[in-house]
């Protein structure tokens, strides 16, 4: 009996040890599995960061090359101008006229200005010191652009060697500098650049006369607006959301009055959205907001169904009364009368101006159907800057 009890206790210990071993192995396996999943997730994040880094480096490299080409072309034009300028000892040329710089506009005609500049060069020529100063400025700008290091935009560490090799390859492939020889000691050192077959637009430095160019650019802006076509919007009465018996101001068959005295239940015509006219106008709670300036024709009509002697509405521009319409129709024995009230007006509008319609007095019953009560506006022409400044 004693041996049997000892053997049973030994078997129990072995069984317990086996269970503990199995549990420990399971814990180790789960831990290894979790660590492997975490490792794969981190590797995936690193790969995505590396791909983003490569794309950003490629973008920065392309941007740097384009900037270098533009600056090289500018330097070459300055060299040509400097080489064609006659040297005059003991004389100092007048400083060049101030020139305004604009972005290149493909719709702008620069031929007239080039002819005027050719006429101006016959009278006065740019001085050598002035051109040398411009050349020095471009050279400094060029050196600053070449030495740009885009590391501050990269979130991955240890990228110094990659950016250094990128910078070295970019500068070696695109530039070759040769110091020239000058007879005069005061002339700056020229920067000779080997350029590829690349035509830079005329917009690097454009000269414009302030008065004439202002008028031309205004005409270009007006021409662009005219290319958009007619800008218009139309809104009709919309009483579809109301139900007789549920809304006390609605009497059925589109007959309703407006509790606040303001006409709010408008809906844009279907062609407004189809023609993308809703990008030029915004309708919110019965108020129309204009997005483009211009001279507009504004019209409105309300069909009244009332027993009272007079009815009418008012048109407000930025909460200021600009037009109104009133009808007077005497009633006999309280008979119901249906009369339309129409008005229109020309108004110069600017961006973010608002328009809305209100009752003149009290609340009147109207037939708020899109074919009977409506209002809208049409842009007729652009506004001159003189009108906008007033």
Automatic annotation (TrEMBL):
GO terms, molecular function: cytokine activity; tumor necrosis factor receptor binding
Residue ranges, annotated region (Disordered): 81-104
Transmembrane segments: 14-37
Gene Ontology CC annotations of this record: extracellular space; membrane
Principal subcellular localization: secreted
PROSITE patterns for this protein: PROKAR_LIPOPROTEIN, THD_1, THD_2
Key words of the record: Cytokine, Disulfide bond, Glycoprotein, Membrane, Secreted, Transmembrane, Transmembrane helix
PANTHER family, A to Z: A PROLIFERATION-INDUCING LIGAND-LIKE PROTEIN-RELATED, PROTEIN EIGER
Protein name: THD domain-containing protein
Species classification: Eukaryota, Metazoa, Ecdysozoa, Arthropoda, Hexapoda
